[in-house]
Design a protein that fits this description.
Layout lengths: L8 E4 L5 H12 L3 E6 L2 H15 L3 E5 L5 H15 L4 E4 L14 H29 L3 E6 L12 H21 L4 E8 L2 E2 L9 H8 L6 E2 H11 L11 E4 L3 H4 L5
Parallel strand pairs: 1-2, 1-4, 2-3, 4-5, 5-6, 6-9, 7-8
Helix pairs in contact: 1-2, 1-7, 3-4, 4-5
């Protein structure tokens, strides 16, 4: 086990699978204690048990909707009550609801806003309050997307939230730098996860149009996240790190 994050305490939302799971795994592998969250109670308990078996009890699971204030506060309280402090948050939970702009309904819009923006904003707020109380700084990381920078068909609402997170990270530089808290964003491009691989053409399509010749992996994204929340990135704040194999430089459409 690497000790880069030894004694650090992190919260990762949307940790049940995919990118969130890999981030949690890597943080625990590198010595951090992690509060893992997902809306699926059975799934997140399984994730916690698996990581604990691998890395000697480094996680605690808390199920719940990461867009709900009560759950957000419970996440912070759980980190402090179980591990004594809070040093890192990764606001990874998010939902994607595709839909044509002209027929997109208010219910879908509100669902996307609640988790992607509302949840991320208030997790950062409640975590920052705790970090300021501790007086030792901290790291806040938002999970954006290349769709926050490049137009993508049927993702107007989702893209709006992901662009908003990038601006939120910039604005919080003004609010939180005096307390030693950095705020950054990772924007993955096409990434191979359980969800995206349900599309049989996904892997080959994105390999064809991505300059590096392949779609990204969850490990690619987790590596970027771990760098930005590490001591090595203490002078980096308000930034968005795009992890897309160069796709957004050329922006070839997958359609």
């Amino acid at each position: 086990m690497n000790i880069q994050f030894k004694g650090q305490v992190a919260i990762v939302t949307g940790a049940g699978k995919g990118i969130g799971y890999q981030i949690s795994l890597e943080l625990a592998k590198n010595g951090a204690f992690v509060v893992v969250n997902d809306n699926d109670d059975e799934l997140i308990q399984q994730v916690s048990a698996k990581i604990n078996t691998l890395y000697n009890g480094q996680t605690v699971a808390l199920a719940g909707d990461a867009g709900e204030i009560a759950v957000i506060q419970m996440l912070v309280d759980t980190a402090v009550s179980n591990f004594g402090q809070l040093n890192i948050i990764v606001a990874n939970a998010g939902i994607t609801l595709f839909g044509d702009f002209l027929t997109y309904n208010p219910e879908a819009f509100q669902s996307v806003m609640k988790v992607n923006l509302h949840g991320s904003f208030f997790l950062a707020q409640r975590a920052a309050i705790q970090m300021i109380k501790q007086g030792i700084g901290g790291r806040i990381l938002f999970m954006s997307s290349v769709t926050g920078q490049q137009a993508h068909k049927d993702l107007a609402a989702y893209a709006m939230t992901k662009a908003g997170l990038q601006m939120l990270a910039k604005n919080l530089v003004i609010e939180l730098s005096d307390y030693g808290i950095t705020v950054n964003t990772v924007a993955p491009g096409a990434t191979l996860t359980e969800r995206t691989m349900e599309d049989e053409a996904y892997k080959n399509t994105w390999a064809r149009i991505t300059p590096t010749g392949r779609a990204g992996t969850v490990e690619d994204v987790a590596n970027a996240v771990l760098f930005l929340v590490s001591p090595s990135a203490s002078q980096i704040t308000g930034q968005t790190l795009v992890v897309d194999g160069g796709w957004s430089a050329v922006s070839v459409s997958p359609f």
